[in-house]
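JOB MANIFEST
job_type = single_chain_structure
chain_count = 1
residues = 350
[input]
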Amino acid sequence: MLALLADHRDQARTRLRPEVWDYYEAGSGEEVTLAEAEASWREFRLRPRVLRDVSRVDLTTSLLGAELASPFVVAPMAFHALAHEDAECATIRGTGDAGNLTVISTRASRTIEEIGAAATGPWWFQAYLMRDRGLTEALVQRAAAAGARAVVLTVDTPYVGKKDKVSGTRIAVPDDQYLVNLAQHLVPGAVGRESAEQDPSMTPDSIARLADVGGLPVLVKGVLRGDEARRCVDAGAAGVIVSNHGGRQLDRAVPSAHALPEVLEAVGGAVPVLVDGGIRSGTDALVALATGADAVLVGRPVLWALAAGGAPAVTASLQALTAHLQHVLAVAGATCPADLDPSMVVRARA
């Protein structure tokens, strides 16, 4: 099962240009948070139940009205065209064919409308609050018209994280892809590009505003504290995504695995809580789900699959993760994610 993900990674490293591989794999600063992302899930140990009938395991998951084959969601990531010629259209098709959900990035390399037309399953649209608020609102309205089921507002990027290890490397993203979803809304030149940068003055009021503009539920992504999660929910967030941006924003930010319990306690079941950052197996997902998460997001493994074989490889990657989760769930004595609870996991070391 998991050998497939490793194979996709090896193929991607071979097929991608070195600067593209480095861009996808890089973290911010000294990459401390990046290194801890995967390792933090491995700090937990399982306390399985026994003498349970686990002959049938059901992983179907409902998220804000979307019915999924399993609790895996594809995280928003920029510029899929660097990995495959069919770009996000292949990603969304492959994800839908696996029965899962995709979050499409504002920085996608295909138009929102093209991606929506290629979808074979439910999808959400990731938004940044930009200096030109009207630009963000226009994108959200386009996403709603194209079939998006929700908006994911990324809140951990008032400024883009400094990726020191690739700071001297220029990624050649063609102009027609770099701002493909923004160009029609921008005035020409540097002023137009500046208006498409993230707004560092963002406040919680933006959550309700985006929900009104698009008529869609708004989840907030990039939360690592319980008090901040509660603040988002009180401001109208329909969901919270515990995330440190894959180690690409604030270096030495706490791992998502460590932040998850605090956020869950603060939210208190009021809205769904999802988590990303270093999920590489069904066991990682089991730890997150047992802790209390409603679903997990995966990022880089999907890009590896996309580079390795387009939409079919994306489908195969998600199916492999689903199969692994199904297996470990049964061995742990559970028949569905709802059977899991925090008593089944313990942190092995501080």
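[summary]
The chain has one domain: 2-347.
The chain has a mean pLDDT of 93.
exit_status = 0
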